[in-house]
Amino acid sequence: MSLLFRLAHEPSRTLLLVQLAALLLYPWFDTGHGQGVLAAISVGVLSAAVWMVRRSPREAWIAAALALVGIAAHAVYRFTGLTALGVVGAAGYAAAFFYSAAALVAYMLQDERTTTDELWAAGATFMLFVEGYAWVFAGTQLLQPGAFAIPGAAAQPLTWVQALFLSATNMSATGLTDIYPATPHARVLLIVEQWNGVMYLAVVVARLAGLLRRR
C-alpha cells in the first residue's frame, strides 16, 4: 500500500525511474536485430510519459494520439523500409516526447511552490527533451543521409544510442564529443537543442530552485 501511495503521489519519480531503466537497457539492443526491442522500450517510456501528462494542465489525449501515430508509422517502417513512414514515425515519437515535456514544464510552473514530485519532474523532463531530439535526429538522417558523422568511421546512420548520446551531450551543453553535424540543417537542429537546454536550466530549473530556497 505504501508503494502504491508513493506512485500515486510522486508519478514523476516513477517516470524518471522508467527512463533510467530504459537507458540501461538500450545498449544491449543497439544493433540491427534489436531495433524491435528498442522500439518497445521507447513505447514503454512514452507510455509512462503520457500517464504523467494526466497530472499536468495539458490534455493527455493529445500526447496519446501523437504517440500512437509515431508507434504505428515506425512499426510499419521497420517492416517495409519506406523512408516516408520512418520520417512520420520519428516525427510522431518526437512530437509526443516534446508535448509530454511541455506538459511537465506546465505542471512545474502552475503554482508558487516546489513539491518533491516537481523536483523529480525536473529530471524526467530533461530526459524527455533528450529523447525527443534523438528522434528528431533519427528522422533527419532518413531525410538527409550523412547528416551526422563520426570522424574516422565509415559513413552510416547513427544508432539509437549514438543519437541519444549526441542529444544528451548537446542538451546539457557538455560538448559534441565524437559525433558532429555534417550538414547545415543538422547544425541548426543542434543549435535549437542547445538553446532549448540553456533556457530550460535558466528558466525552469532556476525557478524551482528559487522557490525551494524561499520555502
Quick synopsis:
The protein has 215 residues and is mostly helical.
Question: What does this protein look like?
Answer:
- The protein is mainly alpha-helical.
- It has helices at residues 2-9, 11-25, 35-53, 60-80, 83-109, 116-143, 160-171, 184-214, and strands at residues 148-149, 180-181.
- Strands 1-2 form a two-stranded antiparallel ribbon.
- The longest helix has 31 residues, at 184-214.
- The mean pLDDT is 84.
- Order of helical and strand elements: HHHHHHEHEH
- The total strand number stands at 2
Strand-residue fraction?
under 5%
The geometry reads as: globular
What structural category arises from helix and sheet content?
mainly alpha
What's the arrangement of secondary structure elements?
Layout: H1 2-9, H2 11-25, H3 35-53, H4 60-80, H5 83-109, H6 116-143, E1 148-149, H7 160-171, E2 180-181, H8 184-214
Antiparallel strand pairs: 1-2
Helix pairs in contact: 2-3, 2-6, 3-4, 3-5, 4-5, 5-6, 6-7, 6-8
